[in-house]
Structure formats: C-alpha cells, structure tokens
Amino acid sequence: LVDGTLQGSGVILNSHWILTTAFNVAWYDIDELEFRAGSNSYEHGGQILTLEKIVVHENYTGSWDYDIAVVKLSNPIKLGKKAKPIKLGTKDLKGNTKVVASGWGPTSEYGEPSPNLLSGELTVLDWNTCDESYPDDLTPRLICTSDTDIAPCGSDFGDPVVYKKAVYGLYAGGYGCLTYPALFTDVASLSNWVKSAIKQ
C-alpha cells in the first residue's frame, strides 16, 4: 500500500521478510509504504505492517529484468491460518504447466482494483512461444503465462504464481492484459539472491 492505495502484492517469506517486485518498492521512501497481511481485502482487516528496510536487486534498472526485492518489516507478522509463509520455487517450470495466480487487480484492462482477493489458473508458456511476443525483453529471469479469459493487470504487480505450494513467479508486467502473455519474475532463477538478501 502507498498512502492506503493498492500498489501491488507480495508473499510472506517468514515473520520478518516479504518478497515482492522491485517496481512496487524501488521508487518510494520507506515511510510511504506499508503492507497488509492476513486479510482477503486490501482495504481493511488483517495486520498493517511498516517497513524497516528495502533490498532491491542490484541489477534492477526499471525494466522487467531483475524485477525483485525483499522487504524487512519493522515488527514481525503474526503468522497463522490467514498469514502463512511460502517456500521458494526451485526449478524451471515447463511449458503447459498449470499454475495459480492471485491478487487484487482489476478484472478488465481499465477497471478498478478488486476489493477482495481473486485467484485463477494460468498456463505457463514455453520459452520460444513467449519470445515471439517479447523478442527484445525476454530474459532467463522471466517466465510468462497466457490464457484467454484471465490474466493479471494493473495493480497486480508482485502477484504470486504458485505451483505445488511454492512461489515461482511475481507479476512484472506485459504489453496488455489478455492481449499479450503476462510476464513474471522467475523466482526460482533468483532464489539464491533472495536467500542471501534476507540474511542481511
């Protein structure tokens, strides 16, 4: 949240750290940001968490590449049924793998954010198919998904892609909702960076 307005999402790594995209946090002062955990609504409920430190990947320049960051919280999250940590993905996802994405983004390209958490199944595209849509932007640190009736959109930055109870992607962007494949930061390819960053 930025001044109470939805900016994007992240996932809980442990009681002190949240994983998100660099885009969500790199352009703000630390006291402008807060996270809400343990609620299906981004507007109320759960726990409001302030930040102690932001660690953005050192190679992030504002593009989709290396779009990853971790945030250390001022006070620990009270973990429970509604606020659970998730493990990091560890391998490459093959084309046609079914994954689940969730977030509060709009249900149409120019719509308003959803007040309640939404989720849906997406299909991972193989590298060559994705490269046809993003010949100048695709890197080994990105994966993409495509479906005809569901896709992340504005305010969905940082939305997780989950496979077998592990986070494999964070929504980074794309050329358009539904009209082009959605691009996600490949968490598995950057998992060593994440593990190192949260030791700081």
UniProtKB/TrEMBL annotation:
GO BP terms in the entry: proteolysis
One of the record's GO molecular function terms: serine-type endopeptidase activity
Domain of life of the organism encoding this protein: Eukaryota
Pfam families: Trypsin
Keyword Hydrolase: yes
InterPro entries hit by this protein: Peptidase_S1, Peptidase_S1_PA, Peptidase_S1_PA_chymotrypsin, Peptidase_S1A, Trypsin_dom
Record keywords: Disulfide bond, Hydrolase, Protease, Serine protease
Domain Peptidase S1 span(s) in chain numbering: 1-199
Parts of the chain that traverse the membrane: none
PROSITE patterns: TRYPSIN_DOM (PS50240)
Family: Belongs to the peptidase S1 family.
PANTHER family: FI18310P1-RELATED, POLYSERASE-RELATED
Listed name of the protein: Peptidase S1 domain-containing protein
